[in-house]
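User: Please predict the structure of the protein below. I'd like the answer in structure-token form so I can feed it into my own downstream comparison script.

Assistant: Understood. Taking the following sequence of 326 residues as input:
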Amino acid sequence: MSEEVKNKSEYLVEVRDLKQYFPIKTGFMKTTPLKAVDGVSFSIKPGETLGLVGESGCGKTTVGRSLLRLYTPTSGDVFFDGERVDEKSIGHMRKQMQMVFQDPYASLNPFFTVGEIVEEGMKIHKMYHSETERMERVYELLEMVGLNKDHANRFPHEFSGGQRQRVGIARALALNPEFIVCDEPISALDVSIQAQVVNMLMKFQEEMDLTYLFIAHDLSMVRHIADQTAVMYLGTMVEYGSTRDVYEHPVHPYTRGLLSAVPVADPDYEKAHNRIPMDGEVPSPINPKPGCRFCARCRKATAQCHEETPKLRDVGGGHMAACWNL
């Protein structure tokens, strides 16, 4: 009991050794596991943002979906406010945990009006006593995200990508959640709109004491919004710590390579800045070989890197990295 109380007071979300494998047909009546997420662990304190970064296909989105049990995890534990998330508990947790999806074009029902989309969750969870009260809340939410009540009677195809994502955010906020998984919420938007959406999310976080898992491949945006940053590579976590430590003192070769590729709007800096090349392609996550997942692309890889899988270890002040050469 004391451990549960401790978790409640310290972390809102805690993920322990999460694994998500998908069976892939590789022959006649034969399947091989695609290890999309392979032993990921992290914690998020109330009111904070964890930025989850990495290349496309590294398992970031799968982590978010498994955390909310949109996928049933292969193994591992997820705790929300000290309570284990499973098939039974997720029913009453749905109101507290919501998601903003990556594609604003695919995530909204094209046959529903915007008002019906935002209202749907409130109807399912029987919030408010009447249709009038629910619609008043819908209008309030649309105003909050920069739309107006007239938009409630329109359909998604009548809006731009940025406006659709605002509708998606309003839908996520409709149930007054504590935790929101933001799955690359700006990657499909114009650059001019991206900063507006991120600043809006930060504003809501401050006003409503929200907690975010912010999934992205835009490292500059993650640095702007995240308190903690976790770096994923091929289903595993290679570095994890405060955003300041990860960005200013990266220790894993993959993190260093990623950060060296971030463009900076300073010609003199770019001219003097040496990028760290990462040769080769990301290996297949289908039945990966033993050893470090990054060793085939790492210039410092040793025999140990090819034979033994490194685990996250503290390199100082809670800054964690999985590398044999630290």
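That's the full token string. The first strand starts at residue 13 and ends at 27.
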